[in-house]
Amino acid sequence: MSSRTKIVVLRMKEIIYTAIFAGLAILLITLFLFMLRARKAEQPAGSQDAVSSEQELSASYIPGVYSASISLGSQTVNVEVAVDSSQITSISLVPLDETVAAMYPLIQPSLDHLAEQIIASQSLEGITYESGSRYTSQVLLNAIETALSKAAAD
Question: Which of 3, 29, 33, 61 is least surrounded, with the fewest CB atoms within 10 Å of its CB?
């Protein structure tokens, strides 16, 4: 039974790199967990907005065309909602020029999909959208809700 001695040589450069990468990994994991916690905190507030939008939609409207602005980079696009005294008649983007359509290709198809559902149901409840255009659809729904709140008869 002879014991063999093993000698391990560590270079200071390798130790420093390992410490830096371990520190960065801990930082990224902390940021990831922080972002998940912030997203979970925002969800109950969104559900309250959905309840208030249902109450606004059950009310009658002042007939007209109402708009809400969306800022897209340096461009501003208005979401226009046309209503008569009891229902939503149309939803459109004004002005949607070629540069905005080229830079944000999901905005028009997402609005068309949302407008069909909203006009058919006359409500912002139960609206579905594709997972690929989730954020675009949420921005558009917020703008539509803002425009409808302007149209609501008090």
Answer: 3
Short-list 97, 143, 96, CA closest to 118: 143
Orientation of helix 107-121 relative to helix 134-151, angle to 10° = 50
Whole-prediction pTM value? 0.59
Nearest to 101 by CA among 91, 90, 112: 112
Helix 134-151 and helix 12-58, axial crossing angle in degrees, nearest 10: 30
Give Cβ neighbours of residue 56 (< 8 Å, ≥ 6 apart).
Answer: 145, 148, 149, 152
Length in residues, the chain: 154
CA 80 – CA 97 distance, rounded (Å) = 15
What burial class does residue 142 get, using C-beta atoms within 10 Å of its C-beta: 0-12 exposed, 13-18 middle, 19+ buried? middle
pLDDT digits (tens, 9 = 90+) for 59-112: 578 888 999 999 887 888 889 999 988 888 899 888 777 888 888 888 888 889
CA 4 to centroid of chain Cα atoms: 63
CA distances from 113 to 69, 116, 127, 141 (A): 19, 5, 10, 11
